[in-house]
Each structure stands twice: as structure tokens, then as C-alpha cells.
Input
Amino acid sequence: MDAIDDANQLRETPKNEVISFFESAPLLKDAAEIEKSLKEFVDRNTSSSGNLNGKANRVVCIASGGTTVPLEKQCVRYIDNFSSGHRGAASTEYFLKAGYSVVFLYRRGSCQPFCSSLPDDPLLECFSVADDSSIEVAEGILLKLPFTTIFEYLQILQLISVSLRDVGPSAIFFLAAAVSDFYIPWESMALHKIQSASGPLDIRLAQVPKMLSVLRNEWAPMAFHISFKLETDTDILLAKATMALKKYKMHMVIANELSTRKEEVIVVTEQEKVTVRRDCTRAGAEVESPLVELVVDRHSTYIKKFDA
Amino acid sequence: MDAIDDANQLRETPKNEVISFFESAPLLKDAAEIEKSLKEFVDRNTSSSGNLNGKANRVVCIASGGTTVPLEKQCVRYIDNFSSGHRGAASTEYFLKAGYSVVFLYRRGSCQPFCSSLPDDPLLECFSVADDSSIEVAEGILLKLPFTTIFEYLQILQLISVSLRDVGPSAIFFLAAAVSDFYIPWESMALHKIQSASGPLDIRLAQVPKMLSVLRNEWAPMAFHISFKLETDTDILLAKATMALKKYKMHMVIANELSTRKEEVIVVTEQEKVTVRRDCTRAGAEVESPLVELVVDRHSTYIKKFDA
Output
């Protein structure tokens, strides 16, 4: 990577790119309802007596599953990012056990907490793809918010970050979702199904503005930020994780390689690189268990700095 | 549409395009197992005493759900074609009731016959995306074969058509799957995840060869062929359906518009255009019920021509 590239990598996300992304995005349905649920959730879990789950005011926003990029406004075709959502669903369980309240921002149809151990029943494949915008609250400490497209995902993430602002350093953003890097701006998108009559199809995809730095610097500047780096090529994985740490000023980047991601991850911070492995001696043990344990520990240290 | 376009539309699918598609496709896993299941299924259901379901030797291959197009060999991103698979799953039930045996070629995770009335339970969303290549046979008259990519879909469709050849005019191909029109040839595909560092992404997608005409003319020349046309633009729907009927020498094209597809479809044949509507007077009535009834009637007429 040469100097020019590096400089390019480290520049801030241009404001006009961000503005133009949101301006051109289709309006979020149920934005008012989502805001209301978030407000109630935060009020309930950050009272002076601590949250309903016992841990004083700690909240984590877990983003999970892949975002889609529609190729047509009346969408028949779309680019999808593969993600079962297993990492986010399992991590949700461990954060709840650790006393956090959780905002679970998930792709419709992806894995849910507390049902990863269901049998592989073919009946389970018959899920509804209907656009249920149902917002579910489980026992007051888990708020589930679904998304499908990159437009929905980023708009809801912004709503969450604003609603968690008062939580300050007690909030974690645990961004395990597979977010599209490229998209077709809404205004340049075909209205109807693209016709296949004539020859090859050339698609120009614009880069999705790097919202991580906007989230980190503007939307939730006090929170503890964790992003993920998934690659299939191990040779570039750690370099890319370290670069993401610097570029977006993340507090932690969790690097994982596609083929071994259920066995181990590498936690990269400014101070350390720690490989976290699942406990092979216990049947059914998941890598998310020691991972969340480590995150909670580093988050505690982070909070103490503000208390001092 | 001008004359040049029309001529282009009516030409046969070039052999070299077909050969190059299959040669460049990744090898189908379990091809031998699929062939064996198909052979047993056909033997069982086309004996001299009729099939297990009572109707003499009638078999329908129902293709259901959308195919994906990987953008990377170690696939993280892919283009998907939206389809819940509801049409195919519901039609499977009505064909079974009508005495047909059914080969159900379906997208993993899409709707299954006999479970569309399940409650909208959030637990059901937690299905496994694992690559179970499980081949299921229900009571001997339903063979379920799963696919994910366009490469798998077309290879399995070819295996089915070969295995149904001896069934002759008693076989129906009911092609309700949403098949990708464009793809990235395997040999020109990126091995690893496409990097997002530098500027917009230009993708050139090749046209998927029009396999409908290959299926119709070469793979299963005696069968009764039904294809589907889905559009979001009603203005072009009937014209495109009629053109598909001629171009691919289909026996029937079922035209449906995205927003009304659960209420009505238009059945287009050389002789007629029939609008089929669901029975609004019965709660839970589906358009697939009168649709399959009409198909069975026209298929009976088709078979009689061969008997005469």
C-alpha cells in the first residue's frame, strides 16, 4: 500500500457523501415508532437504580446479519451480503448474561438469540419473508429492531446512536453486521425490473460512505466502539483490521477469517492482539462466550477512565 | 420493439453459450446421489400400475424460489432474485392433490409445501443456512431437491429433465423459480472478497444463456412446458409473456404482476388468455388452486393428442 493510498484511507468521510446518502435514501417506515421504543428502552434500563438486568446502565447495540442493496426500486433483484447472523445472536445471549441490556439490530430472517440450538427441522425453513416491522421487547432488557436494506440499517443505527447518547461510555456498539460496501443511489436506480433483452449488463456501484467514522465521531462520540473485519484471505486480514482500528478510531476490531470464524477470532486494540478461541473441551461451547467476556473486561476499564 | 430486436429475440440459444456456461460452472456436489434419487422416484411413480398417487404416470417438476449469482468464489456477496417460493410450494400441494407425483426443485430456505399455514412465530426465523444437501422424499410421491446458486439450479434441472425423458408428454415442467438473468462467469470471478478501498465498483454481468429453449427443444422435447413471467410494469407484462410463449415454444406462460400476484395471474397459451383469480368468497383460498386445476385440464388435452 503506497503513501497516496494510505492518506486516502485515513481521511475523514466527506460530509457531502453522508448527506447525499441519507437524502437519497427511501424514508424509513416506522421511524417514530422505533424512536419511541428506543426512548422507553433507554429510560427503563438507565435509571438511577441500574437497569433491569442488574448491571448499572450498561447497554450494547449489537448489529447482526447482512444488509441488502436493491438493484431496482420495486425490488426484484438485490445484492446480498452473506451472514447467518449467528455471531450477533450468540453474542446477544452472552451480553444479557453479563448484565447488559441489548438493542439487537438484525436482518429479517437471520439468527435470533436463544434459538440457535433448535433442531434442524425442515419446517423451520418455512419462515415468512413478510415485511413485519414488528419491534419486540423481551422482558424489558432486549429490544429487537429488524432491517433488510442498507438504507434501513444505517437510518436505524443513527436513531439508536442518538438515543444512547446520554448513556455515554456505558454504551457499546458491537457492529457484527455484514454491511454492503457498494450501493446504487436511490435516484439513479431503475424503477422497474431490469430487462434482460440485450447483451451484458454493466452496473456501476457507488461506495457506501464509511459511516463507522460518522458513528464514532459524531453520532456516539463517548461510546465504546467495536467493529468486525471479515476476510477470506488471511494474508491481508490483520493488516486490514489494524488499519480499520486507526482509520475509524475504533476501540476494538475483531478480525475473523471466513473458514475459521466459529473457532477463533483475533481481538485487535491499540495495546494488544489477542486470539480468542472457543473452549474445545466443552461440547457446544462457542467462541462468543470468551469473546464477550474479554469485551466486557475491556469495556469496564474504558468506563473507569471516565469515572476517574 | 423493432425488427432487429425481434429477430434477435427469436433466434435459438447459441450452443457455445450453453457449453461455456456449464463448462465454467463449479461442479455439482452430490450429482450421483441426485441422479439415483431421481431414478428411484421415476421408477416408483411410472410403473405399469400407475404412480403411488393414483394418476397414471403424471409427474410435474416444480421449480421454486430465486437463484443466486455469487460475486466471489469464496462467496460473501451475491446477487439474489427475490422470491419467497410461495407459488411453487402452494402449487406442489395442489398437484399432489390432483394425483401427480412432484419433483420440487427449491431454493434453500424458501417456502415448503404443507407449511405455509404455520403461525408467524419468530422462532421460525431462526432457520439454518447450512449447506444441507439433504434430499427428501415424502411418502414416495414428492422428491425435494434444494439449490442455492444459478449454477446448481441449471445443473439439477438438466438432471431432472433427463430422468423424466421416458415419461414423455405425461411430464410437466412448471418453472416458477425466479432465475437470474445475469451472472459472472466462474472463471472471471474474484477468488476473494472484493476490496472496497478505491472508488466505485464496475461490474460486468454476462447474460445467462436462455436455458428455457434448451430444456424445451433438447432436454425434454415431449414434456408440457410452463414458464412464468413476473414484471412490475403491467404495460409490458402481456407482451413479454406472449413473446416468451413464441420464443421458447412454451405450451403455457403464466403472467403475473408483482403487486397482484397473490390475487390473480393470466394464463397465456397459443389459443387463449385466461385470467385466473383466487376465490375471494372462501377465507384462505389461494390463486394456485384454480391455476393448477386449469393446468391439469390443459395437460390432459395435451396428453390425449399423443394417445390419438
About this structure: Chain A touches chain B through 62 residues (CB under 8 Å).
